[in-house]
Amino acid sequence: MQTKFLLEEHQMPKYWYNIQADLPKPLPPVLHPGTLKPIGPDDLAPLFPMALIAQEVSTEREIEIPEPVRDVFRLWRPSPLYRAHRLEKALGTPARIFYKYEGVSPAGSHKPNTAVPQAFYNQQAGVKKLTTETGAGQWGTSLAFAGSVFGLEVLVFQVRVSYDQKPYRRAVMQTYGARCLPSPSTETAYGRAVLAKQPDHPGSLGIAISEAVEVAAQRDDTKYALGSVLNHVLMHQTVIGLEAMEQMRMADAWPDVIVGATGGGSNFAGIAFPFIGHGLRGGAKPRIVAVEPAACPSLTRGKYAYDFGDTGHMTPLTKMHTLGSTFTPPPFHAGGLRYHGMAPLVSHLKELGLLEATAYTQTECFAAGVAFARAEGIVPAPEANHAVKGAIEEALRCKREGKAETILFNLCGHGHFDMAAYDKYFAGQLKDEAYDEKELAMALAGLPSVPEPA
Ligand SMILES: *Cc1c(COP(=O)(O)O)cnc(C)c1O
């Protein structure tokens, strides 16, 4: 029985897949927060290089991956696809479980798939410095790595709770030459304003984004890089699904169900969009399941509405599933999933009925991750544990229903920098903190009011 499905280097995708070419209904426009009119490329120019802005709004189905980017990808791509024989056996399921493993990248997750092209296009545009936010540190690490490859300075605002919980991520960022600050920080006007109100603020991705945007907007040679949510970021991640399609063909199988963890939506989109697009063009239509944390449930509990991407309200308004930009999720360990919103593309597909969403608490996800590690040997990142939990639930459903379905999930990263969280889990100290319903209601009540287009 074959366990590992490997592609040759020359089979690495040469094009990204842009799902905007196949949408049955186009994405709602991004709005200027002042005028409430659709924004144009010039509005984004202070923050992003034109090549990325063009990708953001493109409706071309295939966009070429530049050779210098593919050259860096060759360090770890194509990534392996595994059949989880031992997990299937441990669960006693008739289902076949496959997983795509993105933990083989230098940062240990899928994030370098977009950090590398973002750094490349910025370097091509003459940019000298990139600013960004990071939660658990995965994105900051990935951009630090990509910056070092293309000779860019990188400044990372890391959410305070993660900065304190995960000192080794900061050390990795420093190893790649980046500077990392806890957010809220004293280096931006917005950070100082937040600290003045609450000196022990745990931080949030929304606040860190505001700080990074503030710094980038002030200087011509400095731009901002976002690790998830935006259309171009999701498109860069489609190398995952494009490779997985080839590997499923090698395995002589095709998924009935695809599962991914959703924070901002990028790794999930990466594995799912090529399959969804294939379905929209007349191919098989697998069920698509997004798994999010119960403590920050934007897709299952959020409102589909126009909202800011950040807490300081410096970004344009996008229509997405949101918990409200002022919502601060409780500090849980899958830091990469602590974002108040969801990618507009993922939100749009949910509204179109092209995907489902479900939420699990962190302790049930850690239990799933431990079961996975004991069967398959890889210790998943806490974020990835959500995908593992979702896949195990699907496999157990197959067992109850006596169905031999094929399940594919994205194991988006390893947990080697998250062992303190595992340690707490084994000590029984990991608590399922519920978010504050009153705070959620308040954050939702504070959504910007945008009239429905006629
Ligand atoms: C950042 C991160 C996530 C969440 O981001 P998405 O854009 O939703 O993919 C999930 N898993 C890992 C391992 C991450 O590093």
Keywords, please?
binds pyridoxal-5'-phosphate, globular, 454 residues, Rossmann fold, 4-stranded parallel beta sheet, alpha/beta, 7-stranded mixed beta sheet, single chain
Description:
Helix 3 runs antiparallel to helix 5 (112-124), helix 4 (85-91) crosses helix 16 and helix 9 packs antiparallel against helix 10 (205-217). The chain is built from 19 helices and 15 strands. The protein is an alpha/beta fold. The N and C termini lie far apart (58 Å). The strands form 4 sheets. The protein has a 7-stranded mixed beta sheet with strand order 1-4-5-15-10-11-14, with helices on both faces. The chain has helices at 41-44, 50-57, 67-73, 85-91, 112-124, 138-150, 160-165, 167-175, 189-197, 205-217, 231-236, 238-250, 266-280, 298-301, 344-351, 362-376, 382-401, 419-426, 437-445, and strands at 4-5, 15-17, 62-64, 81-83, 96-101, 129-134, 153-159, 179-183, 222-224, 257-261, 287-293, 303-308, 317-322, 356-360, 406-411. Helix 13 links the parallel strand 10 (257-261) and strand 11 (287-293). The protein has a domain at 3-9 and 65-108 and 232-439: 3-Layer(aba) Sandwich (Rossmann fold). The site of pyridoxal-5'-phosphate has 20 residues, from helix 6, helix 13 and helix 17.
